[in-house]
Amino acid sequence: MKKFLITASAYLLPVVAFAAGGEVESDNLVDLINQINAVINAIIPFLVGLAVLIIIWGVFNYISGAGDEEKRAQAKQYIVWGVVGVFIMLSIWGLVNVLVNSFDLKKTPLSEEKLPSFGGDPLEGTR
User: Fold this and answer.
1) Which residue stretches of 17-68 are H helix?
2) How far apart are CA 59 and CA 46, in angstroms?
3) Cβ neighbourhood burial of 43 (10 Å; 0-12, 13-18, 19+)
4) What is the pLDDT of residue 56?
5) What is the pLDDT of residue 63?
6) Residues 56-90 as b or e (16 or more Cβ within 10 Å = b)
7) Long-range contacts of residues 17-24, Cβ cutoff 8 Å, at least 24 apart
8) What 3-state class would DSSP assign to 33?
9) How far apart are CA 97 and CA 39, in angstroms?
10) Cα torsion at 30, 32, 33, 34 (round to 10°)?
11) What's the distance, CA 17 to chain centroid?
């Protein structure tokens, strides 16, 4: 499991480090929020996929350990926690969508005019 987490973090490192293609100075709040949103949008499908893989792993262990009651009990735990994880993630996703659609919220990123900046001109870092 440690090797898997190390590999996954190595792939996500550029996203977390907010790697840019050039010398772009960006200190305004809009870019930070958009980057955080991009990180979250990249991590969520990974977590749902991981929960589904845990369920599949539990089913595989349940079938392969059919003769051993202890292995079957452990496999049941994998299946149960995988289902709980998928259920929680999909429930939160559904709740967010219900709230967005009920209150007619925008699904697009906020514009620079709607957020406060840290200094003078809000377009200063983009020129």
Assistant:
1) 29-64
2) 20
3) middle
4) 96
5) 94
6) eebeebbeeeeeeeeebeebeebbeebeebbeebe
7) none
8) helix
9) 19
10) 80
11) 16
Angle between helices 29-64 and 69-102 (to 10 degrees): 150
Q: What's the rounded Cα separation, in Å, for the pair 57 and 63? A: 10
Exposed / middle / buried, residue 28 (Cβ in 10 Å: 0-12, 13-18, 19+): buried
Q: Report residue 45 as tokens.
A: 């499908």
- Provide the token pair at 30: 């809009």
Dig out the tokens for 92 from the structure: 């939160």
Q: Determine contact, residues 103/14, Cβ cutoff 8 Å.
A: no
Record the tokens describing residue 26, joined without a space: 């960006």
Mean pLDDT, consecutive 10-residue segments, the chain of 127 residues? Answer: 68 58 56 80 88 95 92 94 93 86 73 64 54
